[in-house]
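Researcher: I'm preparing a figure for a lab meeting and need a structural model of a single chain. I don't have an experimental structure, so a prediction will have to do for now. The sequence is pasted below. Please return the structure as tokens so I can convert it later.
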Amino acid sequence: MNPGRPVDVVLIHGWAMHPGMLAPLAGALGPGVRAHLPALPGHGGRAGELAPDPAALARLLLAGAPERAVWCGWSLGGLIALWVAAHCPGRVLALCQIATSPCFVARPGRDAGIAPALLADLRARVAADPAAGVARFLALASRGEADARGALRRLRASHRAGPAPDPRALAAGLELLAHADLYPELAALRVPSLWLFGSGDAIVPARSAAMVAAAGEARVIEDAGHAPFLGRAGELGAILRHWLEDQEVSTRGP
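Model: Understood. Here is the structure written out token by token.
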């Protein structure tokens, strides 16, 4: 990317997390990028309730986003980024997705998602004790890394570095993940897209790559779990940067 013409990149965090978790990735994108890290309602100290609807969340973030930008979503944030790219392509230079799927829960015709029982267990844990539910999620998110214990330590430390999420937002977010199906948006996608999956991700299985390959470029990162950017920000930043250069997004007019 041309440092003289900065590219705006909107980085959207995932469920129960906060924008600061994506700061290492933002810093690894290089000098030609202006990173924007919005907080979802009920996350990162932002007030408001998290609507269990990707469209409503997308419109909320669009209101504060640059007129044209690369949209990059992690996990739940990827549902929002996909909705924006499909419904507002004039606002999107390219779509970069990390550990996300158009449909998070396995169902007929959507067998690349997580088992319904796993999400049901997480919902029950959050209802009984939100902090315990988040702890379970962090444990799942660390699986698949070459150093799973180190990954879990990084996740816990990064999570503690930001404000705790509102329990109401946690419940609403799981409601969204349980029911959202954005495969129609995937089929309507007309902007360049890159989808990155961790080979050992216990939340968004790597086999999801086959489900999105027709809509864009899908890559599987070996020895990676659900949040590879925390331990390998430089590697992921280079992948995204080089891919964006290949798409020539910095040369597109406003």
